Amino acid sequence: MKIAFCTTDGTLIDEHFGRCEQMAIYDITPAGYHFEEMRSMEVIDPSGPHGSHIESKASSIADCAIVYMTEIGGPAAAVVVRNRIHPVKVPKPQPIEEVLESLQHTLQNSPPPWLKKIMHS
């Protein structure tokens, strides 16, 4: 399954979903993971109407099952979920590799029900 990470430098999950200019896309299985691509994203202007921009950003990662970020607003999270992508907020910037290793370990052992559902869809 593909995972998207909101990042400023390609190594850390360190960006807000709306402000994110790029997302690192990885493919992960219980056996391993690998980098797929860096996708450019449209930046959402917080002072303007941004419903269609959020929809566009979510659509651009529609092939991903999960998206990690440092922050996401309620309306944006609803759009992401409606696009069948599971949003995950990290409490502080974290290395993408650490999250991938932890997620791979979870996939190998006992994934929670929400993750099992994603894996089998």
From TrEMBL:
The keyword Membrane appears for this protein: no
Domain Dinitrogenase iron-molybdenum cofactor biosynthesis: 10-104
InterPro entries reported in the protein's UniProt record: Di-Nase_FeMo-co_biosynth, DiNase_FeMo-co_biosyn_sf, NifX, NifX-like, NifX/NifY_domain
Stored SUPFAM superfamilies: Nitrogenase accessory factor-like (SSF53146)
Gene3D superfamilies listed in its UniProt record: Dinitrogenase iron-molybdenum cofactor biosynthesis domain (3.30.420.130)
Key word Cytoplasm present: no
Domain of life: Bacteria
Record-annotated membrane-spanning stretches: none
Swiss-Prot/TrEMBL keywords: Nitrogen fixation
Coiled coil spans: none
The family this protein is said to belong to: Belongs to the NifX/NifY family.
Protein's recorded name: Nitrogen fixation protein NifX
Organism: Desulfurispira natronophila
Lineage, opening ranks: Bacteria, Pseudomonadati, Chrysiogenota, Chrysiogenia, Chrysiogenales
